[in-house]
Design goal:
The chain is of the alpha+beta class. 25% of the residues lie in helices and 33% in strands. It has a single domain (2-144), classed as PH-domain like (Roll), CATH 2.30.29.30. The protein has 5 helices and 10 strands; from the N terminus they run E-E-E-E-E-E-E-E-E-E-H-H-H-H-H. The longest helix is centred in the middle third of the chain and has 14 residues, at 120-133. Pfam families: Voldacs.
Length: 193
């Protein structure tokens, strides 16, 4: 969710309870969709992305939980692009974002462009840490609804298993057995004596 004008004191964001700053970088240009919001200071916190304009053009706060995906977009020398290398985020479309996108679109693209491209990896790591600290509550509910047995089977990628009730397995094996072919050899020897 994007909130216009987060609480600011002395040109710094006022942090929420138990919120910490993971990264602070100056001279970061922000784009929402295709609109530039000039240069400002980016704060990646344990709960939000906060961008404060250097020229009083506004300030934005984005909840980490509303970030669907983030990544680094590098400008290819052979490719024409309207954006230089940056960190790109897809933000869930909320009512506050409707001026930036059409109603059919569920996401808004936000780009953070550093003045120095060497900062991209550091930015990406901070965004990733913030995402790790704010897991999607929908995913946690889905995982917690699985029983231990279902969870183990869901994580096995190499082979598919079919769980049969014990009775069904025993009946299946009895139908396959011909002339004691599945009996232990020792048992056959004991029967002959």
């Amino acid at each position: 969710m994007v909130i216009l004008l987060p609480e600011i004191k002395d040109k710094k964001p006022v942090l929420l309870l138990e919120e910490t700053i993971l990264l602070e970088l100056d001279q970061i240009e922000m784009y929402i969709v295709d609109a530039s919001y000039s240069s400002g200071t980016l704060y990646v916190t344990s709960r939000r992305l906060i961008w404060i304009s250097d020229s009083n053009k506004g300030s934005y706060s984005i909840s980490c939980r509303s970030i669907v995906i983030h990544g680094v977009s590098r400008l290819d020398e052979n490719e024409k692009s309207s954006f230089p290398s940056c960190v790109v985020c897809q933000i869930e479309n909320e009512s506050e974002l409707e001026p930036f996108c059409s109603i059919e679109n569920n996401y808004v693209t936000v780009r953070f462009i550093p003045s120095n491209e060497d900062l991209l990896q550091e930015m990406y790591k901070a965004f990733s840490k913030a995402a790790e600290l704010n897991p999607d509550p929908k995913n946690r509910e889905d995982e917690s609804s699985l029983s231990d047995n279902e969870y183990e089977n869901e994580n096995e990628n190499d082979e598919q298993q079919v769980m049969l009730p014990k009775d069904a397995f025993e009946n299946f094996m009895k139908k396959l057995e011909v002339n004691g072919q599945f009996e232990d050899p020792e048992e056959e020897d004991d029967e002959k004596n």
